[in-house]
Amino acid sequence: MKVSVAEIEARSKAALIAHGAGETQAAAVAHAVGRAEALGNVICGLYYLESYCIQLKSGRVNGTVDPVVSHPRPGAVLVDAKFGFAQPAFAAGLPKAVEAAGTNGVVTLAVAHAHTCTSLGYFTEQIAAQGLIAIGATNASPVVAPPGGNKAVIGTNPFAMSVPGDGKLAMHFDFSTSAVALGKITMAKAAGESIPLGWAVDAEGNPTTDPEAALKGALVSAGGYKGWGLGLMVELLAAGMTGSVNSLDVSGLKLPDGPPHGLGQFYILMDPGTYHADFADRFARVAAAVAAQDGARIPGADRHEMTEVDVPDALWELVLRLSA
């Protein structure tokens, strides 16, 4: 059925409040849910709402806590989410980080001890909307094994980058460093479908097309050793720089009970005019070379934002029950 993004956001906010979130916290998370759906990122949209609600009830996420913002150094802003949602924690630290970037040219924003941020690009695009180049990293529960291995060590560990343009993003990409998002494996299992080779290994470390075997085994990194190295770097930034937990210390992100996620997000904010005024010209040179080739594109350049989206009937019925 067709549902407006505005209705999705309103119902999501009502569901979160009904399950124990505060007004401000619920609004921040619901906006992220609606934004994901508007961009067709269904895995990070309503697909997560039930989990948020269940974990609010179980106490795995604190829905009413106020994040604490500190400024340990001129070029560094730290937000302690205090085991609450990542969205309100980021919102609390962003103004201070943007202000510091204006003074220092480059600043880092660390969000510590947070619930899964779900769509990492949702945050980097907000930084870019302030005219700053944004790089983001976050970790997740362990589902990715090292090349040649069969035991998960790191999460899908997304990496995102957003570049400001003239009234819109000039470039935007957001991808897991695993070969595929875990949600695609679970969705394939629910649909009774196989998965392509190269997505995962079974419990013995053998490549598999069976989603159930993959869930008992581990995902693999995108690009083999290259993706593995990037995923490890994301782990070091998200956990090491923020003082948050390693992927190894987090149980499944959607499990109803258990310790809070306690994950970290690490962002780098850069003023493109810090060293010279030619950044836009340099980017335009590359963009023109890409545009001259049929079928080629700059990542994120043709994103289409919808105001109304298709939602499976069963999922929308669930949303209505959660928000009743």
Distance between the termini: 19 Å
Mean model confidence by pLDDT? 96
Largest sheet: 7 strands, mixed
Characterize the overall form: globular
Task: Give unreliable regions as ranges.
Answer: none
Q: Order of SSEs, N→C?
A: EHHHEEHEHEEEHEHEHEHEH
Computed structural class: alpha+beta
The strand count comes to 11
Order of neighbouring strands in the sheet with most strands: 2-3-4-10-5-6-7
Measured on Cα atoms, how large is the radius of gyration?
A: 20 Å
Structure description:
By secondary structure, the protein is an alpha+beta fold. Helices cover 38% and strands 18% of the residues. It has 10 helices and 11 strands. It has helices at residues 5-18, 23-38, 49-58, 86-104, 121-128, 182-190, 211-216, 225-241, 279-291, 313-323, and strands at residues 2-4, 68-73, 76-80, 106-114, 133-138, 159-164, 169-175, 200-201, 218-219, 263-270, 308-310. The strands form 3 sheets. It has a 7-stranded mixed beta sheet. Strands 1-11 form a two-stranded antiparallel ribbon. The chain has a two-stranded antiparallel sheet with strand order 8-9. Helix 4 (86-104) links the parallel strand 3 (76-80) and strand 4 (106-114). Helix 1 packs parallel to helix 3 (49-58). The longest helix is centred in the N-terminal third of the chain and has 19 residues, at 86-104. It is globular. The relative contact order is 0.17.
